[in-house]
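Batch job 17 of 40 flagged for manual review because the log was empty.
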Amino acid sequence: MGCLQLTSKRQAIAAILNAAGSTPVICTTGYTSRIAQSLGHRPHNFYMTGSMGLAAALGAGVASATARPVIVIDGDGSVLMNTSALCTIGSMPALPLTHIVLDDGRYASTGGQPTYSERHDLTGIASAAGYPYVMSTAEPTELTATVARRATGQAGPLFLHCRLSTSAEDPGPRVAEALHEHAAGFRRAVLGQATE
């Protein structure tokens, strides 16, 4: 009997959030943000509701500004849309960023068009861009253990590629909170500020 394999985006996001604790988590736009929100809001979650391709850049900015571990939940389409962010992150060898790419081979949020990610070595691209740590997994236990270890403060960017076996699923409702209120709440949570 083989190891349990990651099948859905929901399963992977649940595993990440369960292991993240109070570590800030940047969720890429579309279904990823909607799924994360539907699993139960955490004040340390940031749900991007636009700006596809920029989750990694936002996560790098938060990690650089706070010098705290940050987790980015990204997608294959988003990474392929903005590979220049990988080069920026790769040039910051002490950045405490965990960049997780959930790869279902589809632009799920816009109709399921193929990304053709299976034709490209995303871990190879990240390694060439300078990430000091690169790995792939399809096992929930390995994903959870890696996130938990990284949330304790291991420095250096990690690119973690997770191939998913399915892409069709109900993402839950759209993020309803006003964007400026959501951003302000995330900022307060990350900086440890009391709610006014």
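Reviewer: the log was empty due to a logging misconfiguration, but the result itself is present. The chain has a mean pLDDT of 90. Unflagging and moving on to job 18.
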